[in-house]
């Protein structure tokens, strides 16, 4: 099975490897700020759909589809979901294959005090985000959509996790900002870094979901579209 992960996220690559998949990485270049929705669940779905479209367009433009033709089941993972995908792919080609090709796409945002937070735009914003979480709580909302490109069947869902923090020392926040890792995370929220682990009070949900790819939901949807 060949997998293309449509994200450079270290966390997602780690999770996908833990799920038993071997994969290569391909990123999507889209203007995330141009896509706006009021509800976090709607936003993560819309963003992931745009990323999926961009991944597919890139595959088509570089004539790279042949590279996945030998796999019995090819899984395209466009991190961060899909909508007019069937109109843009040569669906007839997939329909003629013996085994299905499955497309997995995802996205994630953080919700804090009722407001949607995406990746921090700069170090100051990342610093403020983390200070807000200190001694408080926030939630991650992540989407997963799986599309069977052979049958056209699509299943999707979203997952929400609540995270509660102890007080986070300013020096820890500064180190994390200096490393730059929080600038790459939705809402600047991370729970797996060794510096932040001691200050995570409670996670109501799964760690893999917070990290960007909920395993259980992903596996469930994969089975449903087969």
UniProtKB/TrEMBL annotation:
Domain of life: Eukaryota
Keyword Hydrolase: yes
GO molecular function: nucleoside triphosphate diphosphatase activity
Keywords: Hydrolase
SUPFAM superfamilies the record matches: ITPase-like (SSF52972)
Pfam family, any one: Maf
Matching HAMAP family: Maf (MF_00528)
Protein name per its UniProtKB record: Maf-like protein
Originating species: Linum tenue
UniProt lineage: Eukaryota, Viridiplantae, Streptophyta, Embryophyta, Tracheophyta
């Amino acid at each position: 099975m060949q997998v293309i992960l449509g994200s450079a996220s270290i966390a997602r690559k780690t999770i996908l490897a833990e799920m038993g998949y071997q994969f290569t990485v391909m990123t999507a270049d889209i203007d995330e700020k141009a896509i706006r929705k009021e509800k976090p669940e709607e936003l993560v779905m819309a963003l992931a759909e745009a990323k999926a479209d961009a991944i597919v367009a890139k595959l088509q433009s570089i004539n790279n589809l042949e590279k996945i033709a030998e796999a019995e089941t090819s899984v395209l993972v466009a991190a961060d979901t899909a909508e007019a995908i069937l109109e843009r792919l040569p669906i007839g080609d997939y329909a003629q294959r013996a085994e299905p090709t499955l497309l997995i796409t995802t996205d994630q945002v953080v919700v804090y005090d009722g407001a949607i937070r995406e990746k921090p735009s700069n170090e100051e914003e990342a610093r403020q985000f983390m200070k807000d979480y200190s001694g408080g709580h926030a939630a991650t909302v992540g989407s997963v959509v799986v599309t069977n490109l052979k049958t056209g069947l699509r299943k999707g869902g979203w997952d929400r996790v609540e995270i509660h923090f102890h007080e986070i020392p300013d020096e820890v926040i500064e180190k994390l900002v200096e490393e730059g890792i929080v600038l790459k995370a939705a809402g600047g929220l991370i729970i797996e870094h060794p510096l932040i682990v001691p200050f995570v009070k409670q996670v109501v949900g799964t760690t893999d979901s917070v990290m960007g790819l909920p395993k259980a939901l992903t596996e469930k949807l994969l089975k449903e579209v087969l």
